[in-house]
Amino acid sequence: MATIVREEAAIDLPRAAKGALLVAAAALAGATTIAVGRVLLGLTPSTYEMKQVAILVHLATVLPAIPLGLWVLLARKGDATHRLLGRIWAVLMLTAAGSAVFIRTINHGQFSPIHLFVPLVFLALFRAIRAARMGRIAQHKRLMWTLYSAGLLLPGMFAFLPGRLLWHWLML
Fold it and tell me: What pTM did the predictor assign?
C-alpha cells in the first residue's frame, strides 16, 4: 500500500508578482470583453470567424477562466470551495484548449505557433492534478501558477497581436 507524504506548501509569490498577474489578467479580461462586446453590438465588420462554433466555445470558456483562475490562485487553499472552483477552472481550461485545436483561421488553415499552448495546457493540468492527489502541494502550486500565466494569460495576449482576430475586433 502506497503512503502519501504531504509536503509543505511552496512559498507564496511575491506581492509584486501577484500584482503583475492581477494587472495582466484584468487587462486581458477587459480587452477580451470589449472586443466581444463590440462584435455583439455590431460595431465591427462582419467576418466569417464570428460564426465559427470553435471560436465561440473558446471565448465562452476563456472569459470566465481568467477571473476564476486568479481567484482560485489567490484565495484560501485546500478547502472544498478551492477544490470545486479548481475543478470548474480545469474543465474550462480543457474545453478552451480542446476548442483551440479547431481554430485555424490564420496560417491558411494549418496550425499556428499559438497552438503550441494546447499540449502545454493538457500536460500541465495533468501533472498539477497528479501532484495534488499525491500530496505534492508545492509542485501543484507551481504548476498551477505556470499554467495560469503561460497557458492562459500569455496566449491570450498573443491573441491581441496586430492582424489577429481579437485585435481586429477590438481595434476596427
Answer: 0.87
- Residue 56 has phi, psi (to 5 degrees) of -65, -45
Give 153's DSSP letter: I
Instruction: Specify whether the CB–CB gap between 126 and 88 falls below 8 A.
Output: no
Nearest to 38 by CA among 47, 9, 2: 47
Phi and psi for 134 in degrees, rounded to 5?
-90, 0
Kindly list the averaged pLDDT for each block of 10 residues, start to end, along the chain of length 172: 49 81 93 92 82 89 96 91 96 96 80 89 97 94 94 93 89 88
* Sequence ranges of the domains in the chain: 15-171
Neighbour tally for 79: CB within 10 Å: 9
| Beta carbons of 145 and 73 less than 8 angstroms apart | yes
User: Measured between alpha carbons, how far is residue 46 from residues 49, 76, 82, 105 in Å?
Assistant: 9, 43, 40, 15
Matching residue, cell 498573443: 158
CA distances from 122 to 27, 31, 67, 151 (A): 25, 25, 20, 9
Q: What is the C-alpha separation between 107 and 11, in angstroms, rounded?
A: 42
Determine the residue type at 106. Answer: I
Question: How far is the C-alpha of 24 from the C-alpha of 128, rounded, in Å?
Answer: 22
